[in-house]
Design brief:
Layout: E1 3-7, E2 16-20, E3 29-33, E4 38-42, E5 46-49, E6 68-71, H1 74-85
Antiparallel strand pairs: 1-2, 2-3, 3-4, 4-5, 5-6
Length: 93
């Protein structure tokens, strides 16, 4: 079972439920995805967010397809850090 976080990035009309992909403690980023967007959130508070609304998956993180770098919302970063600190509930690779 995957964990979820809730929030929105700049330019989104409303908060969405994001699925958190498996994460290793050594990794410095998280991949999160909702129905029509995907994002890579870095521990430094930055994120790469897909521009498309077609839900094309990991390819959507390519700058050639319009992905943009944004500041990650603090509520999303806090939720991701909380998931990582909870231990066994989070799938660690």
């Amino acid at each position: 079972m995957f964990q979820r976080v809730q929030g929105k990035f700049k330019g989104m009309r409303s908060a969405k439920n994001w699925t958190v992909y498996p994460h290793s403690k050594e990794d410095q980023s998280w991949i999160i995805q909702t129905d029509n967007k995907i994002a890579k959130v870095f521990s430094n508070g930055k994120a790469i967010v897909s521009k498309t609304k077609k839900g094309i998956g990991f390819v959507g993180l390519s700058s050639m397809l319009g992905a943009v770098e944004l500041d990650a919302p603090i509520e999303i970063v806090n939720q991701l850090n909380e998931l990582l600190s909870t231990g066994p509930r989070v799938r660690i690779l």
